Structure formats: C-alpha cells, structure tokens
Predict the 3D structure of the following.
Amino acid sequence: MSTWTKHRLALLAAVGALSLSLAACSGGGGTLASVNGQKITKAQLDSKLEASPGGKQMLGQLIQTALLDQYAKQKGITATDAETQKKIDEIKSRYPAGQFDALLKQQGLTMDDVKQIVTQQVLLEKAVAPQVHVADGDVKAFFDKNHASYDRPEQVRARHILVPDLKTAQVVEQKLKQGQKFEDLAKEYSTDPGSKDKGGELGWFGKGQMVPAFQDAAFSLPIGQTSQPVKSPFGFHVIQVEERRPAQKATLANTSDLIKQQLTQQQEAQLVPPFLSSLRTGAKIEIYDQRFSELLPPTPPPSAPAASAPAPAPATQAPAK
C-alpha cells in the first residue's frame, strides 16, 4: 500500500468520525449541555468542529479530489472498475487473512470508502506516468544491491474456516470427516469475509505472516490434510494445506518485474506532491469561510514592474531639394 493511500485511509477515518459528530449534533434543540447552569449550545459545538484540524482536512481533501477529477476529465484519464479492484486485491494480499477487513472496521471505514481512495490513486498514477522512467539498468543496479531481501522463504498455500467458538469448529471438523467439501463448509460457516466466498482460500504465505498458532499448524500439516481446531485471537480455525514450496534464492529474472514495479512506485511517490501542488496553484479556488482561508494556494509575490523603454526618437525627414 502506498504512503499516499495509507494517509488517505487514516484521513478518511478521521474526517468520517468528524462527519458523524456533526450529524449527531444536527438534531433539534439549541442546548446540548449545561455546566453549573451555563449552557453549551449546538452552535458552539458546530463552530469548534468545523474549525478543527479534521474539518480543515475534510475540506482540503474535497478540494484536492475535485482538482484531480477535473484534470483527469480534461486529459481523458479514467480508472476502470477492474483497475481499481485489482489494486484493492493487491493491497489486501499484503495483510494476513481477515486483518484488512478488521482494520477497516476498527477505523470505521467501508469498502466503498476504500474504492473511492484507490480510484483516486489510479488516476494519480496515470497522471504522473509520463514522467516515470525506470530503465533496465536501474532494475539491475537495485537488484545487485538488495538481492538478499528478495530471497523467497518456504511458503504454503492453504484454506481455512474461521468460526467464533470451539463447538462450531468441532461441528465443521465432523462434517469434513463425513466427506463434505472444505470449500462448501467455508462458505457456510466461516466468519472471515476475506476468504469465506473463496472457499476459505488464503493463497500463498510464508512464516511471519500469520499469527503464531495458525502458522505452526499450517507449516506442520502434510499436503491435503486438515488440522484440528486451532485457537487464535480471531477465533477457531480449521486449516487445510493445499501446496507447499521450498525456499528459493532470488535471481534477476524472477524479480525484475517486481523491482520495476517498486521503483515505479517510488518515482510516483516523489512526483505526486509537486503534481498536486501544481493543480492547486493553477486553479481558481475560492474559500467563503475565513476559518478555512489557509487552504488557498499561496499568492505569488508581486513582481517588480518592468522598466519603461525610452521612447524612440522621432524620425527626421531630409528636406526636399
């Protein structure tokens, strides 16, 4: 996940909480509380909330979104649903099973919020793409310096069924022994929204990516076998290992695409702030509430008036002879 996306998710969570606060205060009645007979009014709270850093961030983000949308429309840049979903899937794949959805829930965000942010990220990447240049030599130089970090550890590909209690896990275990399909039981019983509809599929993962109890069970199971219920902070898991692959040393051939993608993202991260700044500088932004006036682009210093050139001497016509 890019730094920009992380910032947007955190910001959206903050301003989302602010929006809820404002909405909660929008009901009838002018007095919200009193302290020793002194009234605290809805207008007072609204004023504090709107002028808070969260309120300014919210308006600033709306301005930035409008500027980017206008630029994209002008340049014919679009973000398709498939492009957005692919990037969301890439982000989710970097989290252990269930943790991405748990993170969103913790921050009070929805998948619609994520789609909005990621769509903006796709537009930004396309907007700065013409300035991004990663040569083969750059990729090789980076690999030569960092190849050890691309060595692949031992990995397994597994499915799991997550349930809230041991009794339910034992029911699932018994049905598996009776010959019912793991995928069908995952769809019926699992509470992991990230893998439930995929039959419990978790994809490939290495050591250190799952909680210890889950990891120990998954890496000790023979291929095709199913674990007894495994307790973790998320509940109880029934795990099935599908494939296993040994550790592998990195080569330029099997890492070049990934390195190029990473170097591209680094360049994009450097290009995005000045690009967004240029959009603001070149736009006509009007703020009608002085509490938010700091969101206006800085006014360039006045330039010195150009010195007037001396008037040309009048042409002298020779007298006729």
Summary: Residues 152-245 form a domain with the Chitinase A; domain 3 fold (CATH 3.10.50.40).
